[in-house]
Amino acid sequence: MLIKKLVVGPIQANCYIVGDEASKKGIIIDPGDEGDRIMKEVEKLGLNIEFIIATHGHFDHCAGVARIKDKIPDVPFIIHEDDLSFVKDSKNSAMRWGMVIDQVPDPDRFMKVGEEIEVGDITFTVLHTPGHSQGCISLLCGEGIFVGDTLFEGSIGRTDFEGGSLDELKKSIKEKLYTLPDDTVVFTGHGAETTIGVEKKFNMFVRG
Ligand SMILES: [Zn+2]
Ligand SMILES: [Zn+2]
Question: Largest Cα–Cα distance in the chain?
């Protein structure tokens, strides 16, 4: 499995391009900005993208979708239904942060919790991890998990945005993430990777 991380946009979100080396099939997770740069990287890797997925609807995780869709219009953009309002409001939300972005296109469909998304030989399982927003999901794939803004290295996601809840966030982390094996690699929405074991031990906000 090939994982390429690109730090995109002024909010420095982590976009991940994940590919199956044998079949050259791939997925883009959290294209938060710089859609053209992401697509250049996809071409360099020689991948055929099958899905574009946002871990949640905040614009710093999907503002690159419009430019990506210009290049690969038939590839479905998928989010959790509960974050649709953020996608609809993306251009305005970015403006409130002093940023100009392309309006994020409407999702092609919504993901189902527990759904398995197959990309070549790689299987991603959709976990619902609300708290940072209501429609936050995590994508579990083998010994790795893509968590968006739910859990960070030594920190947790903000809960002061619309739909945020600290209680729910803690519950998601404890019940959905900390129950995974300690050596599971956590690919975060911002900043460095970590592991479940390290966060259970050292995370000051939610202890395992
Ligand atoms: Zn967010
Ligand atoms: Zn974010």
Answer: 44
| pLDDT tens digits, one per residue of 160-181 | 999 999 999 999 999 999 999 9
User: Which residues form the domain of 47?
Assistant: 2-202
Asked if the structure places residue 208 within a domain, the reply is: no
Q: How far is the CA of 161 from the centre of ligand 2 (A)?
A: 11
Give the CATH number for residue 186: 3.60.15.10
Number of domains in the chain: 1
CA of 77 to the centre of ligand 2 (A): 18
- Which sign, positive or negative, has the C-alpha torsion 30, 62, 127, 180? positive
CA of 105 to the centre of ligand 2 (A): 18
In a domain, 129, yes or no: yes
**pTM given for the model:** 0.98
